[in-house]
Specification:
Helix content: 40-55%
Radius of gyration: 41 Å
Largest sheet: 4 strands, mixed
Shape: elongated
Number of strands: 10
Number of helices: 11
Length: 381
């Protein structure tokens, strides 16, 4: 009997230990009498919200459509969206890198595929806009490279300055001077443009007239109108005037026996005078159409012709003539200027004013009889 009592007591102790262990491990739930009973894990509710992850979509340089102001962007068909993504948007980093390399500064490409797709009018632009956008970028980069090869560091600097946002866009234009495709610079952006329904036409020559776009932008960016030199004029001066004017100046100084000499080409003043004259419509049909490009050339010719005129009148070997000139033009300066009316000459003349000798002409005869400008200097002394 003692054995049975002892066995029952041992069983109760083991049961108590088991309940304590179960409670400590967190199994079961409390029953009405406080004991823990094991429960099964509940399946996930169908109403529970699964954890989500954020997908970061890489941004592109494609600008939102400006058509319609705050109107929603045009949603492209799925196949077209895929084409734009695969054939253009994924290539933007490379296209921007190539463009930036050519221009020596970081540039961005900002096209609006949704808006441009609404302007598509042929099979290529409608079915393969991605390839088309990429070809526009490649064609523009080649055109810019050709432009820089022709105009050098100055041309590159001018383009970077005028297109100050360093952004290239693709837009429709109403410019009547552009037939199919071309480029313009406005609001600090280089705009690849197309006329009417010619999106996708003449892509390879989109920047063939970039120099004209740069020149026009330079003129329009001047707040005072035509007084500032445009790109064509500045490039012509650098090419046709600056390289040799030092030698011409030295010859004039030697012929006149001067200790020093300053030449004043007055580029800005003369440019403004010719620009105003041509804008008036009074110029003859034979007037140089691209006179801006030749501003440096003709200015140089006026000073170069003065060398021949002075030599022909004997200044180089006549101390008396040199002395007479030095007394009359005691500031040792010679200027070239365009005036409304000459004092005595028909095409051009020389005059002395406040110790300075001026070669002067009128806008109408800017390029006429240049070699005769200094023909009668002796008569003025």
């Amino acid at each position: 009997m003692d054995f049975l009592k002892k066995a029952k007591q041992t069983m109760k102790e083991l049961e108590g230990d088991l309940n304590k262990a179960t409670a400590q491990l967190g199994f079961g739930d409390k029953s009405q009498n406080g004991a823990q009973v094991p429960v099964a894990a509940e399946p996930a509710s169908s109403n529970s919200t699964p954890a989500t992850s954020t997908i970061n979509t890489p941004s592109t340089s494609v600008a939102p459509s400006t058509a319609g102001g705050d109107a929603p962007k045009t949603k492209l068909p799925l196949a077209i969206r895929k084409n734009v993504r695969d054939e253009f948007e994924t290539k933007i980093p490379e296209l921007e890198a190539n463009l930036s390399s050519v221009l020596g500064q970081p540039w961005k490409i900002s096209f609006d595929p949704g808006h441009l797709y609404t302007l598509a009018d042929d099979r290529f632009s409608k079915e393969k806009p991605g390839q088309m956008f990429t070809q526009y970028c490649q064609g523009a980069t080649r055109g810019i490279s050709d432009y820089i090869e022709q105009f050098g560091a100055d041309g590159k600097s001018e383009l970077n300055t005028l297109a100050s946002s360093h952004t290239m866009t693709l837009e429709q234009t109403t410019n009547p001077k552009i037939s199919y495709s071309g480029c313009e610079i406005s609001s600090g952006m280089l705009r690849l443009v197309f006329r009417d329904k010619y999106l996708g036409s003449n892509i390879n020559t989109v920047c063939a007239e970039l120099a004209t776009a740069v020149n026009n932008a330079g003129m329009s960016s001047n707040p005072e109108g035509g007084a500032a030199l445009d790109f064509n004029a500045k490039n012509g001066i650098k090419k046709d005037y600056e390289p040799e004017i030092g030698n011409v100046k030295a010859k004039i100084q030697s012929i006149l026996g001067l200790p020093m000499l300053e030449l004043h080409p007055n580029f800005e003043r003369n440019f403004a005078a010719i620009a105003a004259y041509t804008a008036s419509g009074k110029q003859p049909t034979t007037y140089p159409r691209e006179w801006q490009k030749k501003l440096g050339f003709h200015t140089f010719k006026y000073f170069e012709s003065l060398v021949s005129s002075l030599e022909g009148q004997g200044f180089a070997k006549d101390d008396m003539l040199q002395e007479g000139y030095q007394e009359t033009a005691d500031k040792n300066e010679i200027g070239l200027r365009i005036v409304d009316k000459l004092q005595k000459g028909t095409y051009n003349e020389c005059v002395f004013e406040n110790g300075v000798m001026y070669i002067q002409t009128t806008p109408q005869y800017w390029t006429s009889n240049i070699r005769d400008a200094g023909a009668k200097i002796v008569d003025l002394l």
